[in-house]
Structures are given as structure tokens and as C-alpha cells.
Amino acid sequence: MKDSPDIEIAKRRLREKTLSFVLVKEGTILYETAEKGILPLLRLTEQGMLKGASIADKIVGKAAAQLMCCGGIKEVYGETLSQDGKQVLQQEKIPFTYHHLVEMILNRTETDRCPMEKLVQKTTSPPEGFLILRDFWKEKAPAPMKTIDI
Predict the structure, then answer these.
(1) If DSSP codes are grouped into helix, strand and coil, which group holds residue 4?
(2) CB under 8 Å to 37, separation ≥6 — which residues?
(3) Which end of the chain is more exposed for a tag (fewer CB within 10 A), N or C?
């Protein structure tokens, strides 16, 4: 399957600028960041920015995949994709490609599973994962989080 023009733009920008993720819709870059972690993706999900867009992300685990699905993402490219993230995208019928497929996403010191992945490990649906992540970050996030219907 050939990648869409939007995902090609996102992938190219991700690599050229050494970003953590790039969001593209209808040929326009809506958002890009080098910030690590899931918080920027959570905020964009809450703001409704993912609907119908394409995303290239450096790391896509189960937590990120669940947020992307809740946000209505059109397609995903993961530089690194976990088995759990792949399963979520497949279940939700979101087209995806990846460069590396890994068993799990590790924490930043590579000594254990990523803490966001631990939070959603036992969830069975993207909305359940979204709610857990939103509630977790509501306590820690510097900017206010708003509620969306999922």
C-alpha cells in the first residue's frame, strides 16, 4: 500500500527536523513538536485536532495509539511501534506503517516498561485508555485540560 501525501509530509518532516511527532491534514502541517512524552498528544486529542489528520510519531505504544484512535486520526506512521500499539490500531482499523516493531515501549532509562504504557496496560478500549491518561495528567499537567466526549 502506498502512503498518502499527508503521511509522506509528516514522515519527511519528522526525520528532517528530528521531531517527536508531526500532525498533517490536507497537505498542511497542523502541529509539530520535539517535546518528549505523551502530553502534547493528549492535549491535541482533547482539542479535537487529530480528527481526519495523519500523524508521524517517533514512538507509538498502546497509550499513544489509544489517544490517536479517540482523536479520530486517519492514519499513523510510527518510527517505533509496539506490539500493543499495533494491536490497538488494527482493532480500530486505522491504517498504519512503521520502521521498527518492538515488543514494548520502555521508560527513558530503558530499565522498565514506559509508565504511560503501564497505566493503560490492562485497558480494553481506546476510550478507557484516554480517560485513564486524562485523569493522570489532570493532576500533573501545567496547562488546564478540557473534557471531550468520546
Answers:
(1) coil
(2) 116
(3) N
Residues 6+ apart with CB under 8 A from 117: 61, 62, 63, 82, 84, 104, 105
Q: How many beta carbons lie within 10 A of that of residue 78, not counting itself?
A: 27
Instruction: Give Cβ neighbours of residue 12 (< 8 Å, ≥ 6 apart).
Output: none
Q: Which domains does the chain carry?
A: 5-140 (3.40.140.30)
Round to whole Å and give the CA distance between 32 and 146: 21
Low-confidence ranges of the chain (pLDDT < 70): 1, 141-150
Cell of 59: 514512538
Give the per-residue pLDDT at 93: 97
d(Cα 61, Cα 133) in Å, to the nearest integer?
13
Spatial CB neighbours of 72, under 8 Å, sequence gap ≥ 6? 50, 51, 52
